[in-house]
Protein 1
Amino acid sequence: MANIKSAKKRILVIEKKTARNKAIKSRTKTETKKLIAAIKEGDKAKAQELLKVAVSKIDSASSKGIYHKNNAARKKSRLTNLVNKM
């Protein structure tokens, strides 16, 4: 355990940031899973709506530094291709 006051503070700050990042990443994964489920069901209209939500969540996570911009672009591209192939 840290003894110095600034080190203790850093530990607290990192815990908060980790929790925030984890929540955002989890939300993004949930939306992606919903989209993939809609694709498997074959519901194109629902899939297109969920694609908008998933892309929005991925963009939001990317802007906060949770995903690298290229990683976010790859995820969006793959999801879009899945919907377009329906």
Protein 2
Amino acid sequence: MKEELLEGLTDEQIAKIKSFKTNAEVLAYAKEEGLELTDEQLEAVSGGCITWSRPTPCPECKSTNTEWVWNRRPHHYHCNNCGKDFT
């Protein structure tokens, strides 16, 4: 995530957010902490991808229970069903 998108967060919150591997973890943490993310922050976390409405199927097990791993480029995904990471 770009540093300017982390403005307004404490150093502890930033470190915690940077440690997460999936957007779902970031969103759960934001909800837990009562953080209100801006539209720009939410878009950055979700990757601005269509995966919210159309999940990317896992090439291994074909499950659509997948998540975009927000802090990796190119787009990396994680399958919550079999645990495979893929691009």
Protein 3
Amino acid sequence: MNIFGNNIKFSIFGESHGVAIGGIIDGIKPGTKLDFEKIDLMMKKRNHRAVYSTQRAEADKYEILSGVVDNVATGAPLAFEIRNADTKSGHYKDIETVMRPSHADYGAYVKFNGFSDYRGGGHFSGRITAPLTFAGAIFKNELEKQGIFIYPHILSIGDICDKSFMELENICDLGFFPVTGKEIEDKMLNHIEKVRADKNSCGGVVEIAVCGVKAGYGNPFFGSVESEISRMMFSIPAVKGIEFGRGFDITRLTGFEANDNYYYDDNKNVRVKKNNNGGIVGGITNGAPIIFRVAIKPTPSIFKTQDTIDVKSKENVQLTLMGRHDSCIVPRAAAAIEAATAMVIYDIIS
């Protein structure tokens, strides 16, 4: 079922080449004032335009259908839609039964008995992250009113890596996280351009730090903060992995090195000297920044000729894609991950 949340409920609808995409948000507190300037900024970050991005020109203009009067939430379900305006479905006309490598095509074909919308990936498309970003932007603004801030960071693209939040000496000091420097950014852009010129694509890693979440949120086992965040992250197309704090690298440390020692600061607030667990222990927040990294796979839509199958003729065939596709979706995915994180954190602390 396409429904997320415990204290809030969010459902999503639409296909990449359908009339519209959108969603319904239930659980926004009545009287919540929507900051459309901040929502627009978040939507623009997801709709990132660059030479390596898809040339599909969608304005991502949303229309609120219910639940808001004079920019204030009424308490009723907030329904909204985003119209698709620049679809070119003809690019998919001749490959309806040809399964694109590393897309959801084959699994969807089997699950939905051949009736799923194949155009542009249908309901499996990254286009569906637009409504997710809209909804998350609302909750991000509400979190900031409570002193909770989310810092996204493109940690790597291909084999070009920036410094991780985990490398900072002041990792436990709230609200101090750097942005990618121009030198690293230029190297990342050059790498993307190299694979784009080769009709190929690349992936990367997005790192997130959430500052200001107090200790005591979450539950052990099935309701852990890690499991709730992970569940949402894997709802974003192209996400293939997630790790918290030191992640897999913590296995190289001894217990003495890995343990996050508690102490009282001058104001008798509980702090940790290290943050190897990424702000979550036993599924529950400990007051340190929540830090995790998300792996984004290379865009599967590439222009090189590839081997695949035609499920209608039941033959092995070769496929050369047409259309407009991102060479790297990491910069755009970062905005969706940031917004999705806000929705999860808001749901957890509500």
Protein 4
Amino acid sequence: MKRTISLLLALALCVGLLLLPGCGWFNQKKPATPTTYPFVFVHGLNGFGDEAGSPVSYWGATGGALLPKLQEQGTMCFAPSVSPMGSAWDRACELYAALAGGVVDYGATHSARHGHDRYGKDYGTPLFADWGTVDNNGNLRKVNLVAHSFGGATARLLCALLQNGAPEERTFTGQEPCSPLFTGGKGDWVFSLTCIAAPHNGTSLLTAVDVNPLLSGLASLLGGPVLENLLGRLGFTMGGMSLGDVLRAAKTLDTAYYDLTLGGAKDLGRLTRGLCPDTYLFSYPVAGTDESGRPTGDMTALYRPLGMFIGAFTSAENGVDDAWRQNDCLVNTVSATYPFGEPHQEVTDPSTLTPASLAPATWHVMPTVMGDHGTVIGLGRPLEETLAFYTEIIARVDALSRWVTG
């Protein structure tokens, strides 16, 4: 009897162990296979992708095309085009369509609210086939996003929509179903997001222009016909409005202008807060001035007056204190650190980082890059310098993804 009871207890113990997470046959996971993911480069304001046919690449700029060099090193990477002046929402929808393929759906509710067409460009074949599916080794096919400037807001909003969707678009009762982007539940489709010189918290440049009587007056006095003729040569029309009218209207519309203001960035932050719990976040602030706002030799001479203008501006009323003086000629360095109020970790020495020391859903703020808003994408810099910068970024993310999946 004692022997029988002992055997039964031993059997019960074995069964219990088998049912514990990670133990035994019932919960045993298939051994993971280390993997890396493609890199998608997201351009900023007035930018363009590599398929745009421009004689100069946005990524690499005057130094030369960056992505072909990265591809020679074995990195799978893409640089799609999204609206040069579109809002973060519209650009995020376009980025999704470029990756997943097909026609852009801006959302029925969003489009009706802002008075533009619901559907946009047909991107055709997806850049990354089978994005979000599981490969033969049991790994989810993800992407890494690398974003410059306003591309950071675009990528952040894409991540948030993938994770949370858009309730207003899901509840729309029209005939056409909403885009899969708005259904949410796809937060794990992005492995990492790296933002470079991104105005997470807006730029004080726009506020400085608004409150400057001389500049505001100049914008209002600039006649519609003159500006319309100038923009007409570039394929744009203003319908006879003055620049002042355009700027005032832009603040209330679905535009990049509003998203880049201090208030617009706060609104965007409420949409993107939390992002994706499994996504690794990196941010590279850039500075071409000292902390007092005086340009240094790291800033291209042509941009120094703009750097001085931003560095000289503070406004207690708008929350722009001395910490906002340092800038890269377009974006305040402090704004490019991390979205205020979100988890973050200051990285003083990148060489000490290990995959185990990195946490998802936390902004890892890398040491400030000395230069200006253009040098970090290759304007006025040799391709070798630009290539070394992005190679380091890619190597760190690839090592992290191998560690996570290994």
